[in-house]
């Protein structure tokens, strides 16, 4: 294993069934299309000995831990999204947490907000982060910018293993450009695998 991979973690964000199925209220239309690239990125990460961290949402069915602007989706007579213990909170088919991986449960946009992500990364000696998952303008962007604020010296977002839908390709590109302008690397999966 190359030395640099020992200090690298891949963060897989929100690749859960409730974001992937069209009939769900929080459906991300482009998420289904990035699954094969996320699967490949995770496989390559594991081959390289990179720590894989699954960052997922799991909410209370009553919405007591969800953002205010989404709280109307939860309650006794409402479906909610990524409710803990329900099928929709599970990872997408083809993705699974394996021995040696780590799981972070978040209730807000950033994987760092009110979680132990930063301490886990520090304890593991991680200084390089690679991002995959959904959605670019929300959870990926917020987690990336929090990582930047926490002084992680190397941050990459794999452009075709992330998605911005239900927004446009232009929104995805604009967010990637914004991140690139502050020093975030934006390789394609092929470039990252090379």
**Number of separate domains:** 1
Beta-strand content: 15-25%
Q: Which fold does the CATH topology refer to?
A: Rossmann fold
Nearest-integer average pLDDT: 94
Q: Briefly, what CATH class?
A: Alpha Beta
> How would you spell out the order of helices and strands?
HEHHEEHEHEHH
Q: What topology, given as strand order, has the largest sheet?
A: 3-2-1-4-5
**What's the number of helices?**
7
Shape: globular
Using the CA coordinates, give the radius of gyration.
16 Å
Give the CATH superfamily.
Answer: Isochorismatase-like
Distance between the termini: 15 Å
Describe the sheet with the most strands. Answer: 5 strands, parallel
The number of E-state strands comes to 5
- Alpha-beta content class: alpha/beta
Binned, the helix content reads 25-40%
Q: What would CATH call the architecture?
A: 3-Layer(aba) Sandwich
List segments where confidence is low: pLDDT < 50 over at least 5 consecutive residues. Answer: none
Family: Belongs to the isochorismatase family.
InterPro entries: Isochorismatase-like_dom, Isochorismatase-like_sf
Pfam family, one: Isochorismatase
Protein name: Isochorismatase-like domain-containing protein
């Amino acid at each position: 294993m190359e030395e640099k991979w020992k200090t690298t973690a891949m963060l897989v964000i929100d690749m859960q069934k409730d974001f992937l199925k069209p009939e769900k209220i929080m459906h991300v239309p482009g998420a289904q299309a990035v699954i094969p690239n996320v699967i490949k990125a995770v496989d390559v990460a594991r081959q390289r000995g990179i720590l894989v961290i699954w960052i997922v949402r799991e909410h209370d069915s009553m919405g007591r831990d969800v953002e205010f602007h989404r709280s109307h989706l939860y309650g006794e007579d409402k479906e909610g999204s990524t409710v803990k213990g329900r099928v929709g909170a599970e990872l997408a088919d083809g993705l699974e947490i394996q021995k040696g991986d780590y799981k972070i449960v978040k209730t807000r946009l950033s994987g760092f907000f009110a979680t132990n992500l930063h301490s886990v990364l520090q304890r593991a000696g991680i200084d390089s982060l690679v991002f995959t998952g959904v959605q670019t303008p929300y959870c990926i962007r917020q987690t990336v910018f929090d990582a930047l604020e926490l002084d992680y010296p190397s941050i990459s977002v794999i452009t075709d293993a992330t998605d911005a839908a239900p927004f446009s390709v232009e929104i995805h590109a604009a967010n990637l450009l914004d991140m690139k302008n502050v020093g975030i690397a934006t390789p394609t999966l092929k470039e990252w695998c090379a």
